[in-house]
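Weekly modeling sync, notes
Attendees: S.R. (lead), two postdocs, one rotation student

Agenda item 3: backlog of single-chain predictions. S.R. asked that every request posted to the team notebook include the full sequence so nobody has to chase files. The rotation student volunteered to paste the first one in as an example of the format we agreed on. Action items at the bottom.

Example entry:
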Amino acid sequence: MQQLTSEGQHIVADLSQRYGFSQDAVTHMFFAVLNGNGSMAQFNHSEFAGSGQWMRGGMLMLGDMFNNNLKGQVDALCNEISDILANQPGLLRSGSFQSQSQGGGGQQAQYAGGTIGQSSLFVPDPADHWWPRDLGAPSATGNQNQVQYAYFANARRLAVKTGGQVWLYDTLDHQIGGFSQQQGSGGSILFTSQYGTVNLGTLPVISIDGQPQQPASQAQMHSPDPAPAANPDSRAAGGPASGNEKDIFTAIERLGKLRADGLLSDEEFAQKKSELLSRL
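Predicted structure, as returned to the notebook:
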């Protein structure tokens, strides 16, 4: 079970004092709002009149439905907790990174009782650190549709966990701000940078589950134009596909893994496979 750090406990104590609820009640609500991804909470505590539900935007249901003073206090507490959680990078689920700080530096978030440091509310779970440890702390994290992202701006690396595998990409000169996925089964993963919307498959693959991949040549590296450059199949496969028959079938096999992991759509896979087979 996730636990609060000393900084998180300090914030709970401050909220408890200002809103007049016990620290146990505030902690209960803290995790209720967290489990509701910051926008809702289902709770059950005697200080909140038993079971109830809160939704950001004004909806609140309490067991003591006519106690307007309690309703106001609970709504204000939930809204402030929601604001605090929203300022914790990568804590809430979203298709985009929650926030970014270059080099894992001292980004801080404000709340009514003071200032909190980046990612300081909860004791880190070692299982959450799925990216290569030599990269250090990510500049930003995010997740969408069971795909997790960790962006390391200073190292120019992007780690993506999907289908039980960790793919490490060279981000080149991109300054990544968020991710999205195309609709449909096997929809491609897209990211946004200063160049607009770009397909993740255009980035060179550095490693898969720690296993180094054959580097792409300079001619095959991604250009600022979001449209696929020459030989997009070799970039997505993690290395150039030569005229050699073995290399071509190896590239097709890697493309199949990309499609299975949702990094390529069926249409993109078919197109790239056809281009490779034409070289035989």
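Discussion: group reviewed the output briefly. Residues 129-277 form one domain.
Action items: rotation student to repeat for the remaining queue; S.R. to check formatting next week.
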